[in-house]
Specification:
GO terms for molecular function: sugar-phosphatase activity. The protein is of the alpha/beta class and 194 residues long. The protein is built from eight helices and five strands. The termini are close together.
């Protein structure tokens, strides 16, 4: 399999977490399914995939508007998180992406920019043994605007002290790819590599 390339003018790497470093999407989807059944939420798998990178509560807000639901976003999010944390010990790394982390550790500044909650993101990195490679993590708890807004990635660049045009973002979700492009960063869709 072809390996992921780093562009010549890249001075820092920013990684999305779920579906990019961590093969956690199947667990997220299963948690969504269980929570939706309990709370009576209508959604399609394709819709959920199109929202990859958004916090759960934001997705519920969208579904409430679309389907005329009145589901409590925080309540849904907490229940979904409960299901997810029970299974998160099963998360595996996506080696085609984590290989970059190992290769460029201490050579280039690196950060994680995720639409997930900080507590879950930190635990995911710990489970994968990646916590020792990242001192910078920007989560949904650290921004006011979520992907496709570029705030997450711009904050990563700022914390690393690298200008956005010299950051290369690794993403699996359409919203994250848009966010990186809006930030003026180079972006690599990692999905063809796993």
């Amino acid at each position: 399999m072809k390996s992921i390339e780093i562009y010549p003018n890249t001075k820092a790497l920013i990684f999305d977490l779920d579906g990019t470093l961590a093969d956690s999407m199947p667990i997220h989807h299963e948690s969504w399914k269980k929570t939706s059944k309990i709370m009576g939420v209508d959604y399609s798998f394709d819709f959920l995939c199109s929202c990859a990178g958004m916090p759960t509560s934001e997705i519920i807000e969208l579904l409430n508007q679309r389907n005329n639901h009145s589901i409590n976003p925080q309540e849904f999010s907490l229940l979904k998180e409960e299901f997810f944390t029970k299974e998160m010990h099963n998360i595996k790394e996506i080696s085609s992406v984590t290989d970059l982390v190992y290769k460029y550790h201490k050579k280039l500044p690196m950060a994680v920019g995720t639409g997930g909650k900080r507590k879950i993101a930190e635990e995911t990195l710990k489970i994968l043994g990646l916590n020792k490679y990242f001192s910078i993590l920007v989560s949904a708890d650290d921004v006011t605007q979520f992907k496709p807004n570029p705030e997450t990635f711009l904050k990563c660049a700022d914390l690393m002290g690298i200008s956005p045009q010299n950051c290369q973002v690794f993403e699996d979700g359409a919203l994250g790819i848009q966010a990186a492009q809006k930030a003026g960063m180079m972006v690599t869709d990692v999905t063809p590599f796993y």
